[in-house]
């Protein structure tokens, strides 16, 4: 499985929100074209971690980050990096589907437009169609592209957000509990979609569902109180973890 | 092993009850096997009848354990040590049931045997039976104490079971060699010997499942084998 190369390499990552340390010396490698699941109790730092990857923590004034995050060997945790360009490379999907208050078409077309990926309408149409197909939503919306994105069901909205994320050809997709507001069928569709997406993208998913981590990921990291306790192949983590804390957490002995 | 209790009390209780039933099944199987060995050595036909009757209790427990395991799987999606406990319990309960079946089929063979079975024929059989009984006893102790070392010891000792089987079978073969009229009796005794040896194999399986439960890995390499029966005939 690790014939794969490292896509994101994190070293000695510390994150503070004011006085509170949210991440403590995190060292983690995310492999290319794999799904990496991050698990751990609420407040353990897993969301903080993925928000470091696309520099989402920049908007929080009290947030101080030190350490290194390299994407394909390039340091992204410094002032010189173009954050807009970075977020084009690193897409994100959130817990609650958050389509723009625009049409289905515009939701997907917005990114390629602002990043200048389409110089004419045909090209834009094509990107929208491809993105919606890749997010397994095309068949359901192709005849209603001008309807508002918010008119879709929760699961469809989430797939629309995925289409929006992939429309700018990112390298990495970050997913922060993408299914926690969805019913089992919509969840299954997203999980099925991830299987497909990982052929093209590197995916990092934060999830509270252990069963989901097992189903969708090849590698799992367990965070607790800001520490990355253990990371290993998902198979090993859920059958025979090395660390007692991991075992206690995944078997429901603390949380 | 985790000492902490689970947050969900009913889950804790389900796993405890699974464990209790497996231990109970183990001790039932243990007494069935030891009664069978006693009965064959003494040619106790009355005891044999009881053994045949009692096998149903083991089967019932296995069915109950199967049911408990499917409930745990569907309700709890067990992980890590719980997953391994669940899987191993399923396998161990099936091995115990098979040992029970083998004890029963040995007991069935007692009925046609003459009461005055020559001593020379029961000596090795008795030793074999007692060894397998001890092996079962040890593996169940290992299960209760979750002892990896004891599990390995049981697994290794299967070699002795094979050796004793070989001796016992040779004795029967010699007995048959003396007089062809002994054929029917010899056939019965060969079956009995073979069944006891197979009970020993199931004990070894249990040791393997237990090792997996504790370590999360499989016992490496082929199980040690004793001399083959046919070799020095």
Tell me about this structure.
The complex is a heterodimer of chains A (255) and B (233). Chain A has helices spanning 46-53, 83-89, 104-114, 121-134, 138-141, 154-166, 184-197, 210-216, 234-239, 244-250, and strands spanning 6-17, 20-31, 35-39, 63-71, 74-75, 90-93, 172-176, 202-206, 219-224, 227-233. With 255 residues, chain A is α/β, with parallel strands linked by helices. Chain A has one domain: Rossmann fold (3-Layer(aba) Sandwich). In chain A, strand 1 (6-17) and strand 2 form a beta hairpin. The two termini of chain A are 30 Å apart. Chain B has six helices and no strands. Chain B has a single domain (9-215), classed as Methane Monooxygenase Hydroxylase, Chain G, domain 1. Chain B is 81% helix and 0% strand. In chain B, helix 1 runs antiparallel to helix 4 and helix 5 runs antiparallel to helix 6 (183-215). Chain B starts with 8 loop residues before the first helix and ends in an 18-residue tail after the last helix. Classes of the chains: A alpha/beta (255), B mainly alpha (233). The A-B interface holds A 210-211, 214, 238-241, 244, 246-248, 250-255 and B 2, 4-8, 11, 77-84, 215-217.
Features:
A: 255 residues, alpha/beta, Rossmann fold, 6-stranded mixed sheet, 4-stranded antiparallel sheet, 10 strands, 26% strand, globular, B: 233 residues, mainly alpha, Methane Monooxygenase Hydroxylase, Chain G, domain 1, 6 helices, 81% helix, elongated, disordered C terminus
Short description:
With 255 residues, chain A is α/β, with parallel strands linked by helices. Chain A contains ten helices and ten strands.
């Amino acid at each position: 499985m690790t014939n794969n190369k490292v896509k994101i390499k994190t070293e000695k990552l510390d994150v503070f929100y004011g006085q509170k340390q949210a991440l403590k010396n995190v060292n983690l490698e995310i492999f290319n074209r794999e799904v990496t699941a991050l698990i751990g109790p609420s407040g353990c730092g897993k969301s903080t971690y993925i928000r470091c990857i696309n520099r989402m923590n920049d908007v929080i004034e009290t947030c101080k980050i030190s350490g290194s995050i390299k994407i394909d060997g390039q340091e992204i945790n410094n002032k010189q990096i173009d954050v807009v360009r970075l977020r084009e490379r690193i897409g994100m999907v959130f817990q609650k589907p958050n389509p723009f208050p625009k049409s289905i078409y515009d939701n997907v077309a917005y990114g390629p437009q602002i990043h200048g990926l389409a110089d004419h309408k045909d090209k834009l149409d094509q990107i929208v169609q491809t993105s919606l197909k890749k997010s397994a939503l095309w068949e359901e919306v192709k005849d209603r592209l001008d309807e508002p994105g918010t008119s879709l069901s929760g699961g469809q909205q989430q797939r629309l957000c995925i289409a929006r994320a992939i429309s700018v050809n990112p390298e990495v997709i970050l997913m922060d509990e993408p299914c926690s507001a969805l019913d089992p069928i919509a969840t299954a569709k997203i999980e099925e979609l991830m299987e497909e997406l990982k052929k093209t993208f590197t995916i990092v998913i934060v999830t509270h569902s252990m069963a989901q981590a097992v189903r969708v990921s090849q590698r799992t990291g367990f965070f607790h109180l800001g520490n990355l306790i253990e990371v290993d192949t998902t198979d090993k983590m859920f059958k025979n973890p090395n660390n007692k804390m991991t075992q206690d957490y995944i078997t429901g002995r603390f949380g | 092993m985790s000492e902490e209790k689970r947050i969900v009390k009913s889950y804790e209780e389900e796993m405890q009850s699974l464990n209790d039933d497996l231990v109970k099944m183990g001790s039932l199987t243990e007494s069935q096997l030891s009664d069978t060995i006693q009965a064959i050595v003494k040619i106790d036909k009355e005891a044999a009848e009881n053994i045949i009757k009692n096998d149903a209790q083991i089967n019932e427990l296995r069915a109950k354990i199967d049911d408990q395991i499917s409930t745990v799987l569907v309700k709890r999606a067990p992980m890590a040590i719980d997953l391994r406990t669940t899987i191993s319990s399923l396998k161990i309960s099936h091995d115990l049931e098979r040992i029970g079946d083998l004890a029963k089929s040995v007991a069935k063979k007692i009925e046609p045997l003459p009461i005055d079975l020559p001593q020379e024929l029961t000596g090795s059989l008795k030793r074999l039976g007692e060894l397998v009984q001890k092996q079962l006893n040890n593996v169940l102790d290992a299960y209760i104490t979750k002892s990896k070392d004891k599990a390995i010891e049981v697994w290794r000792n299967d070699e002795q079971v094979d050796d004793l089987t070989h001796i016992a079978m040779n004795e029967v073969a010699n007995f048959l060699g003396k007089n062809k009229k002994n054929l029917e009796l010899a056939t019965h005794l060969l079956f009995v010997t073979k069944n006891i040896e197979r009970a020993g194999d199931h004990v070894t399986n249990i040791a393997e499942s237990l090792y997996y439960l504790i370590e999360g890995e499989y016992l490496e390499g082929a199980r040690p084998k004793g001399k083959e029966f046919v070799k020095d005939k």
